[in-house]
Amino acid sequence: MSGESNLRYRLNKRLKLASRRSKNSKDENKKFESTLSNDGKGKLKPMSFDRKTKRIYAEHGGTNEEVTSSGNAKAPNRKISFKKGQNQVKDDVKAQTNKKKSPRSIWVSSKIENSTTETKQSYRKLKDAAERARASNRTNAKEVDEMDVGGTGLLKKRSKGKLKDTVDSAWASNRTKTKGIDEFDVGGTGSLKKPSKIKSDKMKRLDQCQEKSPYVSISKSAKKNVRGRRALDDDSEVLDDQPKRKKRVIRIDRHDTSNKRLDDGIVINKSAKEKEKDLEKKNEMSRNAQFRAIQPSPSILTYVEDNLLGRRRLIELRRAGYNIELSAPLDNIPFSTSSERERIEDSAFRNKLTFFAAAKSSSSFPPPELPEIAFAGRSNVGKSSLLNALTRQWGIVRTSDKPGLTQTINFFNLGSKLCLVDLPGYGFAYAKEEVKDAWEELVKEYVSTRVGLKRVCLLIDTKWGMKPRDHELINLMERSQTKYQIVLTKTDMIFPIDVARHAMQIEESLKANKSVVQPLMMVSSKSGAGIRSLRTVLSKIARLM
Ligand SMILES: Nc1nc2c(ncn2[C@@H]2O[C@H](COP(=O)(O)OP(=O)(O)OP(=O)(O)O)[C@@H](O)[C@H]2O)c(=O)[nH]1
Ligand SMILES: [Mg+2]
């Protein structure tokens, strides 16, 4: 729309100028007319709106066939009109060249060029029309346009609608195909070409380029780009002279079992022993699971907590008020003076522990004068250590980390009130089988036949729990109606909860037993946990006597 208004403005300006000239001086008017008609000097003529849309280049004396229009090739109506105009222009140019014979080239507006062939009358008509248009205050622009176009004399005969169409199409083409106009040879080389022709030439060249080198990407369409890239890739692969890597093929021999996993269906003939071991492992696993499922009774849990049983940090013991610098600190009285700390509450255990007899057979047992408390259990369970811890007399009873140190029944007097008996251990020991069997037989004879034996403390390692040999001895004591009490040792080795679980488990397993004395005791000779409680329990035996 802005272009159209611009055109109108120009047209009006021209008309104004023309009218002014006609009014002011006839000479000027004549001059103007001469400029319109005279093209011989090659001056640029005053142009109507068509100047922009259509330019005709005529090479004077040159080939007339090269005279072309720069208009829109797509507008057929306009093309027809131009052809007509071109023919007229050609004729006029020929006439001019015959008259003056000057080979100068000129630029003229096609329609104004046509007007050169018209008479002065037609121009006056044009002027009149312009004046009229001015008089109507330039309001009816359409009318002016039509009159102006009609003024050229060439398009006079056309209907209004057709004229309008041609003008519109010309403008549209001008706006869109500015490139086409630019490609005209304005410099007067005389080689004007049709834009379509130029375009086709250009495309041909581009196609040729593409054919020659596939690397040139022509942005005709995305598909072409993709194709070009593929082509480029293919070519690059070809250009790369690197040898292609062969895929490594691994051939597996069906009968070769070395590469196969064991659980891939290969049957391995296991021996009976291995099968038994596997079963045992499975059973053990299930035993562990069972053990984890044990819920200790509240009384056991409180007992464990009160006596600080199980694996504890030293800071915890310190916070509880125990002197951790002492040996077996938990056997001391918390938050008390140093003299009180050293004190053993039970009078029986304050007495001096003295060894008085060792027996390898039942015939060598000493006469039962004092109530006896025997300490039985598997080798290395901590029998001798517990005796020392109870009396706080370290070194009286020999201990060793090597199982099987105690090989005889050792009798200790604790003052004149109690006799403590250290029994040889059973189960694994660094000793001959016959010797071990003899120890076992001796222990069995002592616990089942000994007169004056008031209680057997059956020590069980908390870490390992009850073993079949332990059950054997229990059964024996049950049969001989010997009172026995279970004492869990080395409680400092495992977590408190596991201590409680073991206690619960053993208590449950011995519920039906008659000779068992409750409660189950838990101690640690190392930390001193539970030692005072055990002392209290055992001192009752001395008091009863
Ligand atoms: N951590 C810890 N170790 C202990 C405890 N009681 C004993 N021991 C150790 O266990 C090992 C064996 O102790 P002993 O008292 O000799 O065991 P035993 O039952 O008399 O052994 P035998 O005489 O061979 O039957 C020694 O190295 C002790 O230091 C305990 O409560 N806690
Ligand atoms: Mg011992």
List the helices and strands and how they pair.
Layout lengths: L1 H23 L1 H12 L12 H4 L2 E3 L17 H25 L5 E3 L1 H7 L3 H16 L5 H11 L8 H17 L1 H5 L12 H18 L9 H18 L32 H21 L5 H9 L7 H6 L18 H4 L11 E7 L12 E6 L5 H9 L17 E6 L3 E5 L10 H17 L3 E9 L6 H13 L3 E6 L6 H14 L6 E7 L8 H14 L1
Parallel strand pairs: 4-6, 4-7, 7-8, 8-9
Antiparallel strand pairs: 1-2, 3-5, 5-6
Helix pairs in contact: 1-2, 1-6, 4-5, 6-7, 13-19, 17-18
The chain binds guanosine-5'-triphosphate (GTP) and magnesium ion (MG).
Short description:
The protein is an alpha/beta fold and 545 residues long. It is built from 20 helices and nine strands. About 19% of the residues have low confidence.
List keywords for this structure.
single chain; 545 residues; alpha/beta; Rossmann fold; 2 domains; two-stranded antiparallel ribbon; binds guanosine-5'-triphosphate; binds magnesium ion
